[in-house]
Amino acid sequence: MDAEQLREYGHRMVDFIADYYKSIESFPVLSQVKPGYLTELLPESAPNDPECLQDIFDDILQKIIPGITHWQSPDYFAYFPSNSSTAGFLGEMLSAGLNIVGFSWVTSPAATELEVIVLDWLAKMLKLPNQFLSTGKGGGVIQGTASEAILVVLLAARDKILRKVGKKSLEKLVVYASDQTHSALQKHARVLVPDIAGIFPENLRVLKTDLTSNYALSLEVVSEAISSDLSAGLIPFLYVGTTSSAAVDPISELGKLAKAFNMWFHIDAAYAGSACICPEYRHYIDGVEEADSFGMNAHKWFLTNFDCSVLWVQASQENAVVDFKDWQIPLGRRFRSLKLWLVLRLYGVANLQSYIRNHIRLAEQFEQLITSDSRFEVVAPRTFSLVCFRLIPPPNDQDNGYKLNHGLLDAVNSSGKIFLSHTVLSGNFILRFAVGAPLTEDRHIKTAWQVPLSDFASLDRIDIKPIHYILLSFRRGLNLAKLIPNSKHSSANETTVNVELEDSGTLLSRHGASRPALGRITTTLMNKSVDRKTWDCPRNPKNY
Ligand SMILES: *Cc1c(COP(=O)(O)O)cnc(C)c1O
Predict the structure, then answer these.
(1) Which atom of ligand 1 has the smallest separation from the CA of 300?
(2) Where does the record place the modification N6-(pyridoxal phosphate)lysine (predicted)?
(3) Do 292 and 371 lie in a common domain?
């Protein structure tokens, strides 16, 4: 490691990333490339001799960026957010810089101790009961993802019950979850079994929810399932709660039920847990004192760069120091608490609360736009910053709006303007609009509604608009540029478009003739490598 080279290259990389954020709105949110696109653009093997950084930056711009789906775009509303922030970024950078492997206390005492302290801070912000704090003999640990956290919990719960009932009873252990529980649980129970967790796939109960309980699990349904398993001689041992519509299960009652049957109760609040730092949303986790473990993703809606998933347990921790290698699957671990520490310090609790409230306010705005348009309906009550909605199908629609809404989703996403995802509730295809990108402001909500959603919804038939191609001459020779024609910044005779450069030969043969675009074109592609220029657009690109 040459410190001066690091300084020079590091500054250039930071400049590059800052420019990326500056121009992030000019890219199609959902990457528009086809599978295998990169194989055609990169050499078949690694270079024998070192290459220069500038060539690599050029490749990042021209070959990598087009294949990026921009999770940090203010127009990103898909899945759940995955926040980045200056604070989180600096923490990530420092962690990479120190590059320790902190599996035990002695391998870097600060790494273990900072993690304990920062997770106690966060536990206090969430008003978690004392038994989840290190001072209460419990404590938190940072896992890579919520899925990993669920696996860790599954193993801990399994071992606890097997110590009591004997190892031979493995095949009798039953896990309960709702049909809204994150697919991570099913993945662990179905795919990783029996290698890791050992739970028999037929012993995973995915219990049904519906609109009558706003997609939260009903107590009767769980009780019935437990009773019938008990009478079949099985052993209920774990309940995992959570959701795709951001519904909240009745935590307190489920916790009591779990306790009555001596089951482990895990709360997976990966997304909504962040909101509970605001006093007005804290009641959603009332009853958390009944839980054995509680998880939340700081890397979702809490400004901490991926990955940072926090898991608290009510363990009985008797030793003076923690060796976190025993609280996770791998041995080695990164210094991830730095990210969370910087986020908590550079923002402060009050700002973090306003951050959450602002997104919930924006989601409310979007919800109002949907409710005020008779073509649409909101299909599940909005609690946090997720709005679940759909186009109302005509009466007697063959598939009850499946094709209609799927078509709308495809059209909207391939416009590149915003990115949404979907779920299925009560058998219906539902669009999900999740607010939570740090750069999203009021204007993005308005445009998201107006331009792709409302406009496309009013078409009789939804067609994905063809993407236009033209040939452009750049300093590196003749290139084919892909235009996103319905671009954000356009006036009568000038359109600012996103351009993607590809080798003209392959692109022409792949796409055949392309249609001429009208007017003048300026590129806003990160102005560093492609100079900001204006071209007269050719009438017929083939003759250019
Ligand atoms: C996002 C999410 C997960 C999965 O999170 P990863 O960290 O990507 O594993 C699990 N559960 C819930 C409730 C979620 O929202």
Answers:
(1) 1
(2) 300
(3) no
Which residue's C-alpha comes closest to atom 3 of ligand 1? 146
Q: In the beta sheet, which residues pair with residue 214? A: none
Tell me the residue range of the domain where 374 lies: 353-457
- Model confidence at 325: pLDDT above 50: yes
- Atom index in ligand 1 nearest the CA of residue 79 equals 1
Together in a domain, 284 and 317: yes
Q: Please say whether the beta carbons of 112 and 321 come within 8 A.
A: yes
**pLDDT score for 235:** 82
Dig out the tokens for 27 from the structure.
């890219």
Q: Is 70 exceeded by the pLDDT of residue 536?
A: no
Find all residues with CB under 8 Å of 494, minimum gap 6, and list them. Answer: 519, 520, 522
- Same domain, yes or no, for 420 and 494? no
Q: What is the mean pLDDT of residues 98-115?
A: 94
Distance 152 CA to ligand 1 centre (A): 14
Q: Whose CA is nearest to atom 13 of ligand 1?
A: 270
Tens-place pLDDT, residues 24-43: 988 899 998 889 999 999 99
Place of tokens 């509680």: 294
Question: 358: exposed, middle or buried (C-beta count within 10 Å: 0-12, 13-18, 19+)?
Answer: middle
For 454-512, write each residue's pLDDT tens digit. 666 665 443 333 333 333 333 333 333 444 433 334 343 333 444 443 333 322 222 22
Based on the structure, what is the number of domains in the chain?
A: 3
The percentage of the chain sitting over the pLDDT mark of 90, rounded to a whole number, equals: 49
Cα(427) to ligand 1 centroid in Å equals 22
The answer to whether the pTM exceeds 0.70 is yes
Task: Enumerate the β-bridge partners of residue 388.
Answer: 380, 432
**Looking at the structure, do residues 203 and 335 belong to the same domain, yes or no?**
yes
| Helix/strand/coil for 396 | coil
